[in-house]
Amino acid sequence: MGKIMKSLSNFTVCMTMVVIMIIGIALIPRLDVGVKPPPEQGKTLTVTCSRKGASAKVMENSVTSVIEGILSGVKGVESVTSESFFGRCRIRVQMKKTADVTAARFEMSSLLRRIYSRLPEGTDYPSLSGGEVVNGSDGRNERLTLLTYYVNADMPEEEISECLENGFIGRVRQIGGVENVSLSGGSRHYMELSYDPLVLAGYGITSADIADAVRNFTGREDIVGDVTTGDDTRHTLIVTSGGVSIADIPVTTPGGDVIYLNSLVTQTEKKRAPDRYYRINGLNTVNISVDVAGDANAISLSSYIQREVDRISTILPAGMYLTLAHDAAEEERVEVGKLVNRSLLSLAVLLLFVWITRREWKYLFIIVSTLALNILFAIIIYWFLGLKLHVFSMAGMAVSMSLIIDSTIVMTDHYSYYRDRKAFLAILAAMLTTVGSLVSVWFLPEEWQRDLYDFARIISINLAVSLIVALIFVPALIGALHYDSTSHCRIHRVRCIAVLSRMYFWYVRMTQRRKWIAFALMAVMFGVALDWFADNINGRTNEVDEQELSLVIRGELPLGGTALELNRKVVMVEDYLKSCEGIKCFTTRIDGRGAYINVDFTDSCLATSLPYIIEQKVIGKLIGIGGSDWSTYGVSRMGFSNSLNLQHRSNCIWITGYNYDCVNRYAEEIARYIGANPRTRDVVVRVPDRNHEADELYMRYDHERMALYGIGATDLHSSLANLITTLEVGVYDNGAGKTDVVLKSVQTDMFDKWQIDNSYIRTGGHLSVSADRTSVDDRDIKVSDIADVSRREAKNCIPKRNQEYILSVEFNVLGSYVYVSDFMKDVVDHFNGMLPMGYRCVNPVYKGKSDKEAPYWVIGIVVVVVFFICAILFESLCMPLTIIFTIPVSFIGLFLTFAISGVPFGTGGLASMVMLAGIVVNSAIYILNEYSIFKTRMSGRRVSDARIYVKAYNHKIIPVLLTISSTVIGLVPFFFDGGKEPFWLSFATGVTGGLLFSVIVIQFALPIFVRLRK
């Protein structure tokens, strides 16, 4: 290796360095820069399928079970869960971590194609999704709403929406990178056909007959044949029904008579009530939301889409204006700018420090050139590996700059003095120990790995590059510049070093004789520091970040509420927020019966107590808005909620099995058994984790009476459907535009349980609500005579986990915790003893989202890595122990720093301990490696080990102090944004405190650990 290095001329190496730097500069614009980490391949595959009109039970038996059974046998499947709803089902397949998701997805697609013919007629083809790259901790392939525009025009919202849909929205969808474009705001009209069930019963017509008639005569086109004209031209003859008026649609009665629709229904044009709202700053305008893929480069894509939208907007009618309301990439631009500024500031501070310490232009040029080479060389590797630079990876670049300078300083100091590369082994060992500490990231919990994986990977790449630069380019640059560090030593400096050396030699000899005193003192210091750290750090691990406050207001209506009703209440809150100062922006989302208002504050407001004042005033406003549950969070620690949660049950028992009917029956038996205890309350059978199901009316048939009267369940259901049916029956073109057609009974909104009980059914399906009871011979039977109609909580979902159905018996118990535990144990044991094989009762234990115990054991992994690297370098088993002993002593500085400063520990604190364990040993490695070299050279002389150690110390203490100082100074920019980024504040605090204390450890503790012979 040495011969190869000598054969390369300095000019050749320097020119190679220039070429690499030029390539790196050219690749900078090609880097993928963002705020979020890069996406990963998801391990969850989802199959959805639908069958119109099928109940949840029918979907489970005929569709869900078939698909679930065949997917369970795919290689690599860890678990399968399914949910069957009315008319649809969803099966989730969780793959193992080591499974090949792409191959499994291909196999599942083939299996679904093979079994589709076995599914019931009318079932849609199953849709397979998942397994793509995903974002976020939940593993979902999310879309990002990148841009939001609101549209202003002097016309109704409906006309604005129609103008946008006619051309503009379609062109925006064609822009490269756009996944979806959605339009919100403005309500569509529809045509309602309302009928009286009594009138239909008089003609013997059902609602299904009217629905079929409307579908047949709205928008239908029939090809009846081809016509040949005299010039032998063939024309296709198409019969359309688009010109037929709704009132003129004929309906045939069972007797063969024809009745037109205007005699049966009332035609009304109505405005469809919105089911969702989206507003920015309370502006009730038409909004255009542009969605892109979650893993897209939001910064560059945002600028491109905005330019394209500005170009396309020229086709809009005069007087219609687009205004950009929200740009999700703006935050990323700010964050990336902050990271770049932090890195540049760190670089500037480091270079200033280098200049102050040496004040030599050649030395500064060597440091600057090799640092630039390191960065640009690393950029080439980033591009080649396809790495995405985000918050954590760019922070890794900032941290690694100081470590890169360390290797350059050590090699420059050594080569300029000795003109050899023997220091490279020490640099290699030091860099490997740092990389070894980063390897521990792979052993951390998964949620910690997501944050630190790219941070560790970037630092590892940069350190690997720094080794190449230190080995090849630093010596070549020193040789080309003819730099020599031995010529800069002044006389007064030599005298000062001699005096300090004699004093230090005396200290080393003294500590060698009385090591037990030093060991005892260090043990006491470690214990006191650790105890003080533990006492002061409790309660400050997860402090609220006051400068990142964002108020979230959540509203929810009771069951049965609509988005329109909730919107009226939310508007009151929005009107109040408009009057508050200090609010930068607030966004409202209403979906179904739930609403969220996200309030962002201005920077000047965040610096004061105004967010807390605004929250308290908002709470006062919410208390005065009744009829809904309100809650707030994001500002004060406790937040606010007025929800009584009357549906909450504190206890539950799960019953699982392979047959849903049996599981349901056993759950009812368990509920009756529990209800027999006088201390139990509110016993109910539910689907697990679905606590907000609506109530439903269900029938218990009297089969004997139904058989006596000759009435079937189908007759009963079809008759009731005439009373309460609401159907979407088609789209009607009236010449001015297309509108939806809805068929609805006039009694739908007023029909209740009493009317069902007192309705009369005829075997032919005719139904009346007359209070007079007809004779049995006329076959008019009261519903309550043949069925018992009751109210219960609906089970609109049938869940199954790993081929087992699950139902939950939930209840409250009056009693102590011990009594409740014993009671539930008795119930579970009682029924497990009598249930057949394949069924069981379980008492589920819900694990909260509390903080997990910090994995401090990863520090042991770092110690093991350091031991083996040092053992290989020094060819000894004792010398690595000497180096390892510096780690716990350096932790004294870390403990004291956190205890005194009051900085929250958290994840950043643990990361600093791991990083410190890998960095602090570098100084000891440099000194002890020099000590080993000198000891080998002086093996034939009668020189004490203490003098050799002091000589090695004198040669390496300046580079060591420079490397420690450069690392600490490189972390200074992380303190500037500490309040906004607690992770980096904790990380920088821990590493800085430990490294500064390591100066004392290297000077006074390291010679105690070394065994020096006289």
How would you characterize this protein structure?
By secondary structure, the protein is α+β, with helices and mostly antiparallel strands. Helix content is 50%, strand content 21%. It contains 31 helices and 36 strands. Strand 28 and strand 29 form a beta hairpin. Helix 9 packs parallel to helix 11 (391-418) and helix 12 (423-439) packs antiparallel against helix 28. Residues 134-141, 539-547, 764-778 and 847-851 have low confidence and may be disordered.
Task: Give a topology summary.
Layout: H1 2-7, H2 10-27, E1 32-33, E2 40-41, E3 44-50, H3 56-71, E4 77-85, E5 88-95, H4 101-115, E6 127-130, E7 133-134, E8 143-152, H5 157-173, E9 178-184, E10 189-195, H6 197-203, H7 207-216, E11 221-228, E12 234-240, E13 250-252, E14 258-260, E15 265-271, E16 276-280, E17 286-293, H8 298-312, E18 321-327, H9 329-358, H10 361-385, E19 388-389, H11 391-418, H12 423-439, H13 446-481, H14 491-513, H15 515-537, E20 550-556, H16 563-578, E21 583-591, E22 594-601, H17 603-606, H18 610-623, E23 629-633, E24 640-641, E25 651-657, H19 660-675, E26 680-686, E27 695-701, H20 703-709, H21 713-724, E28 726-733, E29 738-745, H22 753-757, E30 760-762, E31 767-768, E32 780-782, H23 783-786, E33 787-793, E34 798-801, E35 804-813, H24 817-834, E36 840-842, H25 858-874, H26 879-884, H27 886-901, H28 906-937, H29 945-970, H30 973-976, H31 982-1009
Parallel strand pairs: 1-19, 10-29
Antiparallel strand pairs: 2-7, 3-5, 3-6, 4-5, 4-34, 8-17, 8-18, 9-17, 10-15, 11-12, 13-14, 16-21, 20-22, 20-23, 21-22, 23-24, 25-35, 25-36, 26-35, 27-33, 28-29, 30-31, 30-32, 34-35
Helix pairs in contact: 2-10, 2-13, 3-4, 9-10, 9-11, 9-29, 10-11, 10-13, 11-12, 11-13, 11-29, 12-13, 12-25, 12-28, 14-29, 15-27, 25-28, 27-28, 27-31, 28-29, 28-31, 29-31
